[in-house]
Amino acid sequence: MYQVAVNASVKAIVLDIEGTICSISFVKEVLFPYFISRLPKVLGRYPYPLTVENIPNDLTENEELMYHILLKFQPEYRSSYEALDKYIRNLVSMDVKQPVLKELQGFVWQVGYHNKDLKAPLYPDAIENIVKWSKEGKKLYIYSSGSVRAQKLLLGHVDAANNPDADSGILNLNKYISDYFDTINVGSKVESKSYSKIIDIIGHSPEEILFLTDNVNEAKNALHVGINSIIVVRDGNAELSKDDKENYKLIYSFNNLV
């Protein structure tokens, strides 16, 4: 079996989500369309323009929280329903890693997970090794462009119909995760300074940290600050160049790690 050796000193593992522990298609073909389908109801609840002074006094707690998220968009996009709807749809269609959009998506997805409209199809080898590494005493972390809220929702609603530890076919993996990083609390995934922040937060030396991602630019920036980094190759992920295949360590399953 194809194997890649992991530095024996590794005490912490940082995991990407899309294309690493979960298929990119779930995000693009399930989560994004679900968000877009709920967008008219979300935006249609409020009077425009959206301003602090214009907050309705008959909102539920969740509706008020949503309103305050929407207030974080620039005023020109909050001027009308049409302007905000168009702006958000454009961000989604171009897969822009915009922090306010990510926060809004996480809030909408929370409802979908709660209603069991959504279940996250994590790769079986990812589920197996997350549990195994935790039992071995390794600290596990998530670093995704999706908000921390969205990360916790996804990890807390894993589709695991055949898993004996699952509750009604849903497995909660959050108990194995020590902390969560996103573009708000540490920064962009393609900037080396973000990985320096992660090192400081985790409290281990770079040599004691392993980062698993499907994205070459992310791995490059993590390696720049000394973090062990390995590219995860999955069906549906972006094709790697010949140079990438030669210059980076690759795995095709978490079971390839020894």
TrEMBL record:
One of its GO terms (molecular function) is magnesium ion binding. One of its GO terms (biological process) is L-methionine salvage from methylthioadenosine. Keywords: Amino-acid biosynthesis, Hydrolase, Methionine biosynthesis. Pfam families: Hydrolase. It comes from the Eukaryota. The keyword Nucleus does not apply. NCBIfam families: enolase-ppase. This is Enolase-phosphatase E1.
